[in-house]
Design brief:
The complex is a heterotrimer. Helices cover about 75% and strands about 0% of the residues of chain A. By secondary structure, chain A is mainly α. In chain A, a hairpin with a 2-residue loop joins strand 1 (about 60-70) and strand 2 (about 75-80). In chain A, about 50% of the residues are buried. Chain B starts with a helix and ends in a 13-residue tail after the last helix. Helices cover about 70% and strands about 0% of the residues of chain B. Chain B is elongated, with a radius of gyration of 18 Å. Chain C is mainly α. Chain C is about 75% helix and about 0% strand. Chain C has helices at about 5-25, 30-50, 50-75, 90-110, 130-140, 145-165, and one strand spanning about 120. Chain C is globular, with a radius of gyration of 20 Å. Chain C starts with a helix and ends with a helix. Classes of the chains: A mainly alpha, B mainly alpha, C mainly alpha. At the B-C interface, helix 1, helix 2, strand 1 and helix 3 of B face helix 1, helix 2, helix 3, helix 4 and strand 1 of C.
């Protein structure tokens, strides 16, 4: 039964190969079936594995083959399925399958080979992500990490004829790479200290091999990797630009799965983080700062996908906040619920864009409620979930994080709540400008408006349903005794952290209830305010002023990065190219060639064709040879003195 | 006579032949200088064959080997002269001169 | 100074003088004649060393056949005097200097060679050069090279004829 573990990544890999290699021969229907079917099979197997893990606990580690064998240092290509990985497997394959089905309809305007290319890349992405979460050591995780980065680049730049999209893809890849450097350094450090990289060895007794400085260093470097992949300050600017890719790609990669890789990594390494409270504080602060910062930017964006992108950055900030205060289960919980509602939001946005014929600017939308009922309802449910209205899933997961924050530090809690209010506001600004009020677009667009086909709406419905009920697996103690099923399920993964941090038993009590419902009430008030304000939104072409302008320009962060990093680097590269490369290295190498040519030209003149001169050279050479041979010993002595 | 005298004589004759081959431009004269060089070598071989006390060469026949070698050198010289002169005649027929400086087709 | 020594010095002087005259003569026919004098001198040396067979063969083959051939060719081309312009004086100097260098090296090598000191060439005595002894060794030990030399002659003849053909 444990061979099933290998089958999970196998099918997406096969889907990638078939769709990729045979893309000219396959019909679009067949491509869609192969692509989606592969993920469906993986999903079914993931369910089986999940049930096994639920019943029996973590499955043993399976080494497939020895990946690196260098003397005393061995790294196996091994898979490990425990509670944490099986949960992620379900999320990845489940949401992935829905998005594949959605894509068959959304991308159907593409030509055959390009359509197949899209599905091949998507399957490759799922394969890499599965490697990431199923790896039994840091090296396999890193392979998957790089793989998803690559697929992100390929898919963002999917419409490669547009230069701006290519820049966005490059930006994503390069910023990821900066984070990856941190990750690699951390892996090297781990290997140096433990002479192995697999989780079992590292987490067994880390205190023995690592000094506090080591732990701080390793966890900090791992976090740098996470900031790159999961778009935290300062490496977040690629995510909004990544909206250049097709909307299902944004849904899958930049909402549900790739960006959560950082969370997974830190959750997996939880024991080390619990041993380094200073780094945890750093994570919490950066996460919170990102959450609020991105939320402020989202307030003034007019592109529907950009708002959702900043919303993703913001929600990721919350997840990191959860990790930073030790609420590992809460963070994972939020990953799960975020996958549901964010994917639903992105897919809904895709549906809207599809109906609007490619228009993405919300100022030209409005009143779509009556044209697209299914999309509107699912969108509304997801908005309520992300805002944190009970009893939707977002409420439970956000609360898990915020209450843990409150226990650590009240200030964190207050700022977190502020961020939640901003979230509610901009999300309902989005909803209001898109679906409420009257249509502000052109006449042609209005004629084109229609509800999307089944392949688009069914995934929306499924995801919205999950967004509504998904929270019930993690009901906090205050409501139902032993209601937090998720926490119990994930307990073995975080057990040693809990031991180490001497987690206080969950406090019941009315204070907690008061906080929870108080915040929920404020959120509902904010929602109503936003609803009313944006129901009556009038398009105006007046430019933004003051704070609005700063927010609309994303706090000018991109411009700052450009001036501080990009321009000097370009200048340095230009210098290196023109001076060092052209004059120096090229000059040297070409100089050798020119020297050889010159000397051969000179030597050629020796061949005068006159036999007499040839004889002369011969005789002279004989003379020289005579002298050498006769004075052999003396010459050898002389030469050995020189050298 | 001490063997060095013969060796020196032979060397001088040889070098005169070399100088002649380098200096003259007439192909036939050059050829003759080559013959001179060959004869110098022959002289030296014969002188060495008569050297006493003789060096011991296992399996040799005293100094007879050297003289027979001279014999064969003469054989080869004769053959070489016939072919060489034929070539010179050819050259004269083509170029109407026997100046070796005209034979520079191998140039560059 | 007995007669052999005087003969040696005289023959050597003649040989050297004639060799230099070979180089220096402007008329190629004169060069051929001086070369014949050289051959005579060398044959004289051979007789002094009691290599009778070689002396006679030297005269017959070299002076008799080869030089006659040279004369034929010279007369064929009607070379009376060296009618072409003089070679560059520098080339002559270089040629002579090179020859001198070679001489210097050879002589120095020979003079200090350990195996060459205190040996003498046996004059007038010794029966190595007699025809019987040479013939015996030639036809027993060196029979194969002897036969091959006949093949060599054959090929030289064929070669000369082929090269000399009109077309």
């Amino acid at each position: 039964m444990n061979e099933l573990v290998y089958l999970v990544p196998l099918f997406p890999l096969l889907g990638f190969l078939i769709n990729g290699l045979c893309r000219k021969q396959l019909s679009k229907t067949l491509t869609g079936v192969i692509g989606s079917g592969a993920i469906l099979i993986s999903f079914i197997i993931s369910i089986v594995l999940f049930l096994q893990v639920k019943a029996n606990g973590a499955l043993p580690v399976h080494p497939l083959f020895t990946f690196i064998d260098a003397g005393s240092f061995k790294i196996d290509f091994a898979f490990q399925v425990d509670q944490l990985s099986s949960l992620f497997l379900l999320i990845i394959t489940g949401v992935g399958f829905l998005i594949h089905v959605y894509s068959t309809s959304y991308m159907h305007d593409e030509e055959g080979p390009h359509f197949a290319r899209y599905f091949a890349y998507l399957n490759l992405f799922v394969f890499s992500m599965l490697l990431l979460v199923m790896g039994a050591n840091y090296v396999i995780m890193f392979i998957g990490w790089e793989g998803v980065g690559l697929c992100s680049y390929l898919l963002i730049g999917y419409w490669f004829k547009n230069d701006n999209y290519n820049y966005a893809a490059k930006k994503a890849f390069i910023m990821n790479r900066i984070g990856d450097l941190g990750f690699l350094l951390a892996i090297f450090w781990i290997i140096q200290k433990f002479h192995a990289a697999d989780y079992a060895t590292v987490f067994n007794n880390p205190g023995a091999a690592l000094s506090p400085a080591d732990v701080t260093g390793i966890t900090l470097l791992l976090f740098v990797g996470a900031t790159g992949k999961s778009a935290q300050i300062p490496l977040y600017t690629w995510l909004p630009d990544a909206m250049a890719g097709p909307t299902p790609v944004s849904a899958l990669i930049h909402a549900a799965t790739m960006v959560t890789a950082g969370i997974y990594m830190i959750a997996r390494t939880n024991i080390l983080y619990t041993m380094a409270p200073s780094v945890q504080a750093v994570i919490a602060i950066i996460g919170l700062a990102t959450a609020v910062f991105a939320a402020t930017i989202a307030l003034k964006q007019n592109d529907i996908k950009k708002v959702l992108a900043y919303s993703t950055v913001s929600q990721l900030g919350y997840m990191f906040l959860g990790l930073g205060v030790g609420a590992y289960t809460g963070a994972v919980f939020h990953v799960m619920t975020h996958a549901f509602f964010k994917a639903c939001l992105f897919l809904g946005a895709g549906s809207v864009i599809h109906a609007m014929g490619g228009e993405q600017d919300m100022r030209n939308m409005g009143g779509l409620k009556k044209y697209m009922p299914v999309t509107q309802v699912t969108f509304l449910l997801s908005c309520l979930a992300i805002a944190g209205v009970p009893p939707f899933s977002g409420f439970f997961s956000k609360d898990a994080i915020l209450s843990a924050a409150m226990e650590k530090n009240m200030a964190l809690y207050i700022v977190g709540v502020l961020g939640a209010l901003l979230t509610a506001f901009y999300m309902f600004r989005l909803y209001g400008m898109t679906f409420l009020g009257s249509f502000r677009g052109t006449h042609d667009q209005e004629h084109h408006l229609h509800e999307s086909p089944k392949a688009i709406t069914i995934p929306l419905v499924v995801l919205a349903a999950l967004a509504v009920v998904g929270g019930f697996i993690g009901i906090p103690e205050v409501f139902v005794k032993d209601g937090n099923w998720l926490e119990k399920f994930l307990a073995p993964v975080f057990a040693r952290s809990a031991q180490l941090s001497e987690a206080k038993p969950a406090e019941g009590g009315s204070m907690e209830l008061v906080y929870m419902f108080g915040v929920a009430a404020i959120i509902i008030i904010v929602i109503v305010i936003a609803w009313n304000k944006f129901k009556k939104y009038e398009k105006s072409t007046a430019p933004e002023t003051g704070l609005g302008k700063v927010l609309a320009n994303k706090w000018y962060v991109d411009e700052i990065y450009d001036a501080v990093f990009v321009r000097p680097l370009n200048a340095l590269a230009g210098f290196l190219k023109n001076v060092v490369e052209k004059s120096g290295i090229d000059g040297f190498v070409n100089g050798i060639g020119r020297f050889v040519q010159y000397s051969s030209r000179q030597l050629r003149l020796l061949q005068s064709g006159l036999a007499g001169s040839y004889i002369l050279y011969m005789v002279l050479s004989i003379v020289v040879l005579f002298i050498i041979f006769w004075n052999q010993t003396q010459i050898v002595q002389f030469l050995s003195k020189i050298f | 006579m001490p063997i060095q005298y013969y060796l020196t004589l032979s060397a001088v004759l040889f070098c005169i032949g070399v100088a002649g081959a380098l200096t003259r431009r007439n192909a036939i004269i050059i050829f003759m200088c080559i013959e001179l060089m060959l004869n110098a070598v022959n002289l030296m071989l014969v002188a060495l064959s008569k050297m006493t006390p003789a060096p011991v060469i296992p399996g040799g026949n005293g100094g007879t080997d050297a003289q027979l070698f001279v014999f064969f050198i003469m054989v080869v010289a004769a053959a070489e002269v016939s072919v060489g002169l034929a070539i010179i005649v050819m050259m004269y027929r083509n170029v109407h001169s026997i100046d070796v400086n005209f034979l520079n087709r191998l140039k560059n | 100074m007995d007669i052999t020594q005087i003969l040696f010095w005289v023959l050597s002087a003649v040989a050297l003088f004639a060799a230099i005259m070979v180089l220096v003569s402007k008329n190629p026919v004169h060069s051929v004649l001086w070369l014949i004098v050289v051959f005579f001198a060398i044959s004289g040396h051979y007789i002094l060393l009691n290599a009778q067979f070689l002396a006679i063969v030297n005269l017959i083959v070299y002076a008799g056949a080869i030089m006659v051939l040279f004369l034929f060719v010279i007369m064929l081309m009607n070379l009376n005097a060296e009618s072409d312009p003089q070679k560059n004086i520098w080339m002559k100097v270089i040629g002579v200097v090179t020859g001198g260098l070679l001489l210097w090296v050879l002589v120095s090598a020979v003079r200090s060679a350990g195996e060459m000191t205190a040996r003498e060439a046996l004059l007038k005595k010794g029966d190595i050069g007699l025809i019987q002894n040479l013939g015996k060794i030639l036809f027993t030990d060196y029979a194969v090279p002897f036969e091959i030399s006949s093949v060599l002659f054959l090929s030289a003849m064929v070669g000369a004829v082929v090269i000399g053909k009109k077309d």
